[in-house]
Design goal:
The complex is a heterodimer of chains A (121) and B (749). Chain A is α/β, with parallel strands linked by helices. Chain A has helices spanning 13-26, 37-47, 63-73, 88-96, 109-120, and strands at 5-9, 30-34, 51-55, 79-83, 101-104. Chain A has a single domain (5-115), classed as Rossmann fold, CATH 3.40.50. Chain B is built from 23 helices and 17 strands. Classes of the chains: A alpha/beta (121), B alpha+beta (749).
Chain lengths: 121, 749
């Protein structure tokens, strides 16, 4: 069985890069990186990741729109939303659109790890 | 022949002279005849010549002499002598002639008048002629001695008769003249009498005239005085400022003075002689006046009159009957005054009185000695007195005993309105704040006769003002905090992303250092990680503080929330060996709460308490319900929604055994970024956020120091309103897994 794949979609490449390093260092998962919603959607279709970490505030197609398209393409794919600032209305929108998690930055890696385990195991 | 009527025309002298010439010629002729027409003896001629000359002389003698009786008598005697002598001398004078001659002279002397003498002479001569012939024989008439004697005799008779007649007439004239004189004298006497009488009468008349003049003068004077009196009376009537109207017995206007003209708008001439009734607003007024005057002789009261333009006006009238000198009633007169203005003033006064009696402002009027002469009901109520009790008291009874001020007449005089604030005392001794406004009341001469003071109980106003001031401060504070919050929220987003990168990088580095076994690197990485967490907490605090006010309230069990929150701080409790005492009242009513935010509040309060007891202590948490008996709990000068007395509340108290809040900082514990903790240990935002959340719940938070040491935080939630709100809020409860996310919040703290 090949390694499980996590897709990181964030317009800020530095964030994704470091997160990818940490995830791959700490777990057996393979992290994929996309720097825009459109690119992420393509990668979902091309690589069939097991989990998506999706930034909400992005230029162009934002996180919520991307989430809806991902859910349309792969309804069973769990998507965790990542945001800088916790907002109730935003959280509600995310959950309504099918997100399974709403995480605020900076992402606590231990916390993320737990979540990932819960979801992926 | 001389006739009496011609005597006046022909001079008597001329008649005398003519008669004498005739006599002389008749004599001469007689002598001629006697001498048979022969020459006459010279003596006779001389005598005849002398007679003629004397006749001429007579005409030259002044009339004064010739008119005298003596002169006439002299000639009569003289002529009689020389004629008789000649006759005797010539021999003519025989017996019969003598008798005849004598008879003629006698006749002339005794003849009544010249005519009778002439007739008598003719008769004698005629008789002589008749008797002559027998004695003398027939002879020529012109030569007969007897016949010739007849002219002579006739002439002589006439001559003498003339003289006698003349004399007699003279005498008679004298007698008559005497009579006339006497008569004249009589007349004169009469006249004198008359004159005397006239004089007397004149004197009487003069006296009468004088009297009359005097009487006239007096009358004039009296008339003038009467006129003056009339003028004066007229002037008085016309000048009177009061209306004066009189009527006759038929109630027709007789007098209507200027004041009446002005008041009624009629000219005097228009109403004189017309009925008085149209001057009344209603005839019944006129009837009343008439009836009263008839019954009592006078009338004094208010009546309604009507002006020419139809406007009714009120007059005060005094009317009485008018009588002539005999006491007969000839009409009535009234003096009246337009009291419309006065009535209006009285009305206005009543309105003002009503206003003053109705208003809530106390009104006190004092005299210049400070004695109360008037107080309105509000004034009495305000000070706990009956109005009647206040009248006559000194105004000082309103001043508290320790603040008794001297009566402020001078101040009130010095300014129009003297406004000040102070305290007054009620009858029961309680003191209350007042605002007083005093003004002097002056009489027409400008002298102060009293002071009017308006008194307002400003207890409520003071409180409202204070609350307003506090509210303003709060608003300013809120505005300040809001702007800080908005700034923080904007910054937070931008800061969080770099923090995220730093954290990820640090995580990676910590793994590397762990692998390499370099302890020093591990320490550095750990300290950097702590710094990142601190920065994150500050940003989270700011975000909480500036979070939108909308909260998600649902019915919650407060005790359960307390327990959940305690779990979140259990680690810290254990670390510092703090004993936990819970005194939670069972069966608390459910409260409308935002579970997440109230947990945040509790965690904040618990952490503050724990941090206040680094070397251990006791944390006591209690919940209970109670009914408020006193409102207005206030700490940090912040007010929550007003809790009302009698309201049921749920109280949560958290007490620690630490050092408490330093004195002087209790006011500031809720201010953002205020902290008593060492730098780095607290953001200074915890209690600010806590208070904000509590306020959003309509609840109240109070922080105080306990007497036995340590701080006490009291939270008070309104129980009843929460239940009510719960029912209303039910349909709005939002669906979704929000709670799912919130569980992680404690991790950020």
């Amino acid at each position: 069985m090949s390694k499980k794949k996590i897709l990181l979609i964030d317009d800020e490449e530095d964030t994704s890069t470091l997160l990818k390093l940490n995830i791959e260092a700490a777990t057996d998962y393979k992290a994929l990186v996309a720097t825009s919603g459109e690119a992420g959607l393509e990668m979902v279709k091309a690589h069939h990741p097991d989990l998506v970490l999706l930034d909400i505030m992005m230029p162009g197609m934002d996180g919520i729109e991307t989430l809806k398209r991902i859910k349309a393409a792969a309804p069973e794919l769990p998507v965790a939303m990542v945001t800088a600032v916790w907002k109730q209305e935003e959280a509600k929108k995310c959950f309504d659109a099918g997100a399974y998690e709403y995480i605020t930055k900076p992402v606590d890696f231990e916390h993320l790890n737990t979540a990932l385990l819960l979801k992926l195991l | 022949m001389a006739v009496p009527g011609a005597e006046d025309v022909v001079s008597r002298l001329h008649a005398f002279v003519l008669l004498r010439y005739t006599l002389i010629i008749a004599m001469g002729y007689l002598l001629l005849v006697a001498h048979d027409f022969s020459s006459l003896p010279s003596s006779l001629v001389v005598i005849l010549g002398a007679a003629l000359v004397s006749n001429l002389v007579i005409t030259r003698i002044p009339a004064r002499i010739t008119d005298s009786t003596g002169f006439t008598a002299c000639f009569i005697a003289g002529d009689t002598v020389w004629i008789t002598g000649i006759l005797l001398y010539s021999g003519v004078m025989n017996t019969d002639f003598f008798y005849l001659y004598f008879l003629v002279i006698l006749l002339a002397a005794t003849g009544e008048n010249l005519r009778l003498i002439a007739i008598g002479a003719l008769v004698v001569c005629g008789a002589y002629i008749i008797a002559l012939p027998p004695s003398a024989g027939p002879a020529s008439p012109w030569t007969s001695e007897s016949l010739i004697r007849i002219p002579f005799l006739f002439t002589a008779a006439v001559f003498y008769g003339h003289l006698v007649d003349r004399t007699r007439r003279e005498r008679r004239r004298v007698v008559e003249a005497t009579d006339t004189v006497a008569r004249l004298e009589e007349i004169q006497r009469h006249l004198d009498d008359r004159a005397r009488q006239v004089t007397l009468a004149n004197e009487e008349l003069e006296r009468e005239i004088m009297d009359r003049k005097r009487a006239e003068g007096e009358l004039r004077e009296m008339t003038r005085a009467l006129q003056a009196a009339k003028d004066y009376a007229e002037n008085v009537i016309q000048s009177s400022l009061d209306m004066i109207i009189s009527v006759d017995e038929n109630r027709k206007v007789v007098e209507f003075n200027r004041a009446a003209e002005q008041a009624f708008g009629y000219r005097k001439a228009e109403v004189i002689g017309t009925s008085i009734d149209p001057l009344y607003a209603d005839p019944s007024y006129g009837q009343r006046v008439v009836d009263d005057i008839e019954t009592y002789g006078s009338f004094t009261d208010e009546v309604m009159n009507r002006r020419r333009n139809g406007e009714a006006f009120c007059c005060y009238i005094s009317a009485s009957s008018l009588r002539d000198p005999n006491g007969r009633v000839v009409g009535s007169m009234g003096i009246s005054r337009d009291i419309t203005a006065q009535k209006r003033a009285e009305e206005a006064l009543r309105w003002l009185e009503k206003a003053v009696n109705t208003m809530e402002l106390g009104v006190t009027i004092t005299d210049t000695k400070g004695k109360i002469v008037y107080a309105n009901p509000a004034d009495g109520r305000m000070h706990g007195y009956m109005v009647e009790e206040l009248i006559g008291k000194d105004v000082a009874i309103f001043s508290p005993p320790d603040q008794s001020q001297p009566f402020a007449l001078d101040q009130a005089n010095d300014m129009d309105i003297w406004t000040r604030e102070g305290f007054n005392v009620r009858k029961d001794g309680t003191i209350f704040p007042v605002q007083l406004m005093s003004g002097a009341v002056t009489n027409a001469a400008g002298e102060t006769i009293g002071i009017v003071t308006l008194c307002e109980d400003i207890t409520t106003r003071r409180r409202v003002e204070e609350e307003l001031q506090i509210t303003q401060l709060q608003l300013m504070q809120s505005a300040k905090l809001e702007s800080v919050g908005r700034l923080a929220a904007g910054v937070a987003h931008e800061v969080k992303n770099p923090l995220h990168i730093l954290q990820q990088g640090l995580l990676y580095l910590s793994r590397v250092s762990l692998r390499q076994g370099d302890d020093q690197v591990a320490v550095v990485v750990e300290k950097m990680g702590n710094a990142i967490k601190r920065a994150d907490r500050v940003i989270m605090g700011l975000l909480d503080f500036s979070a939108p006010s909308n909260i998600d309230m649902r019915p919650e069990d407060l005790n359960a929330l307390v327990e959940d929150s305690v779990v979140l701080v259990k680690h810290e409790l254990a670390m510092t060996r703090i004993a936990l005492v819970e005194e939670l009242q069972a069966d608390l009513p459910p409260l409308m709460l935002d579970r997440h935010k109230i947990q945040q509040v509790f965690v904040n309060i618990f952490l503050n308490a724990i941090q206040a007891m680094p070397t251990g202590g006791t944390l006591t948490i209690g919940t209970y319900t109670k009914r408020l008996t006193k409102s207005g709990l206030d700490v940090g000068r912040r007010k929550t929604d007003s809790f009302r007395i009698g309201e049921a509340v749920v109280v949560t108290q958290v007490a620690d055994t630490g050092p408490g809040i330093p004195p002087g900082t209790l006011d500031r514990v809720f201010d953002p970024f205020f902290t008593t903790k060492p730098t780095g240990q607290g953001s200074g935002l915890g209690l600010s956020v806590t208070r904000k959340i509590i306020e959003l719940h309509g609840a109240m938070i109070e922080i105080s120091n306990r007497r036995e040491g340590g701080a006490l935080v009291t939270l008070m939630f309104r129980a009843e309103r929460s239940q009510q709100d719960a029912q209303e809020a039910d349909p709005e409860i939002e669906q979704g897994g929000i709670r799912h996310v919130e569980e992680k919040d404690p991790a950020y703290r």
